[in-house]
UniProtKB/TrEMBL annotation:
Signal peptide: none annotated. It comes from Desulfobacter postgatei 2ac9. InterPro entries: FAD-bd, FAD/NAD-bd_sf, Geranylgeranyl_reductase, GGR_cat. Pfam families: FAD_binding_3, GGR_cat. GO terms for molecular function: FAD binding. Gene3D superfamilies: FAD/NAD(P)-binding domain. This is Flavin-dependent dehydrogenase. Residues 5-59 form the FAD-binding domain. It comes from the Bacteria. Residues 169-223 form the Digeranylgeranylglycerophospholipid reductase catalytic domain.
Amino acid sequence: MINKEIIIVGGGPAGAACAWTLKQKGITPLVLDKYSFPRPKVCAGWITPAVFKLLELRGDDYPYTVSQFDRINFHLFGLKIPVPTRQYAVRRYEFDAWLICRAGVPVNTYCVRNIIRKNGFYIIDDQYQCKYLIGAGGTHCPVYKTFFTQTRPRPPKSLIVAVEKEYPYDISHHQCHLWFFDHGLPGYAWYLPKGNNWLNIGIGAKFHTLKQRGQNIMDQWRHFTMDLQKKGFIRENPPIPKGHNYYFQHGPEKYRQDNAFIIGDAAGLSTLDMGEGIHGAVLSGIRVADAIVDNKPFVLPHPPRFSLPKILLPH
């Protein structure tokens, strides 16, 4: 059995930020992730300036392309509202691999199946043992499923379903566009051009509302992609999209159970309006590392439910 003081389940932004912080403080955790890096990741890859600050990224630290947006075009009930801002986008395929590599900790490709707590330790599949266990495995994180379903239940109304596609494309429109409530969608849609001619398009919606209305997320996808073609954003049907789901912020704010913690999407920290979760993931990863090393309570600042107030202000 492999014994480590701290094991992090999940090597995405939350787990990588936690691992990086722990390593800076002199502790080397073990990260378990069911995929090897780099791996495909369904995500728009929206990055706020605060994320760069939290990760202490400066200048040319990041070796891959970062798309910078000084304007976002919001579309609401037929109105186009261009808003000055300072935001960024990355390809998660590149960003996640670089982030976990930067942490400088061991990463094992392993799918966690069973976790028990025994004699003050967490035992994973009779193969790994640790004193502190951090769940950073996303919506379906096994740490959440094992220890937090009762203390931090997920309300059905907080479930978001999304479909999106990121693919190489000869981009002619280089500005970011966001649409809200088109065709009765209880959510938003996006057109996000990235560096090296990669395009990310997608939609996200409240599953509970879709179900009540008898709507289907793929029907909404077809409406959206047809509109993109009519408006000249794309010239033909995009490749088949991939789907995922996540939970936006909800209470109670129970992120710790004994020495087990949940962070990032496992904790449900995405914003309601735009599903922005990377900031919450990185912040929670850093804060849990601080809490363990300094033997303090794991406390997150009350997370904002909406991204728009920050995005609307020039940075």
